[in-house]
Design a protein that fits this description.
Elements: E1 9-10, E2 16-20, E3 23-28, E4 31-36, E5 42-46, E6 49-53, H1 59-80, E7 83-90, E8 95-99, E9 102-106, E10 113-115, E11 121-127, E12 130-135, H2 138-149, E13 161-164
Antiparallel strand pairs: 1-6, 2-3, 3-4, 5-6, 7-12, 7-13, 8-9, 9-10, 11-12
Length: about 180
């Protein structure tokens, strides 16, 4: 039995679950999320909890069991607490500013880069070098944060670029780090 899949998902107060076959709608204080799941996995709501079971012990059913349970748990967490990804910018002259709902980046290009938020996503700028991406859908928040990081990936020699907060960049030694050379 899957250790993750067999755990029941507690449904907090203020969250309503509408289950229609393999289609689920989760409504909470922060919004509503919907998702369809594979019909092989059985989803039931009982005693204020959601229980996910699988019909057989095949590899496919075992994989779907844990995946389905995790996706449902992420939906419940999203509509109650939401998700946030914090990012940092490092580099001389690199900065971010908020213009209305959009972010405007100055990343050493000849032009500023403007990013508009997707539906359900909001941006927050703490300082000119720190900002965050927030929303209720974990997958969309992570995808938007990754797309922003792609604007200027951190480079290994000077460490300039956009990184996730707490991320460590493996630094490389440049030409001066070579051993030996001409004599």
């Amino acid at each position: 039995m899957s250790r993750i899949g067999k755990k029941p998902i507690p449904v907090p107060n203020g969250v309503t679950i509408d289950l229609d076959g393999s289609h689920m709608r989760v409504k909470g204080p922060k919004g509503t999320l919907e998702q369809s799941f594979r019909p092989e996995v059985d989803i039931k709501q009982e005693d204020g909890q959601i229980v996910v079971t699988r019909p057989a012990e095949t590899a496919t059913h075992r994989a779907l069991h844990g995946l389905t349970r995790t996706l449902i748990a992420n939906m419940v967490t999203g509509v109650t607490d939401g998700y946030t990804k914090n990012l940092e910018i490092s580099g001389v002259g690199y900065r971010v500013a908020k213009d209305g709902q959009a972010l405007v980046f100055s990343l050493g290009y000849s032009h500023p880069v403007r990013i508009e938020p997707e539906p359900g996503i909001s941006f927050n700028v703490d300082t000119p070098t720190r900002f965050s991406v927030s929303g209720i859908d974990k997958q969309v928040v992570g995808q938007v944060a990754a797309q922003i990081r792609e604007l200027k990936k951190p480079e290994p020699y000077l460490g300039k670029g956009i990184i996730f907060q707490g991320e460590r960049i493996r630094r490389k030694a440049g030409k001066a780090g070579k051993v030996g050379g001409k004599k």
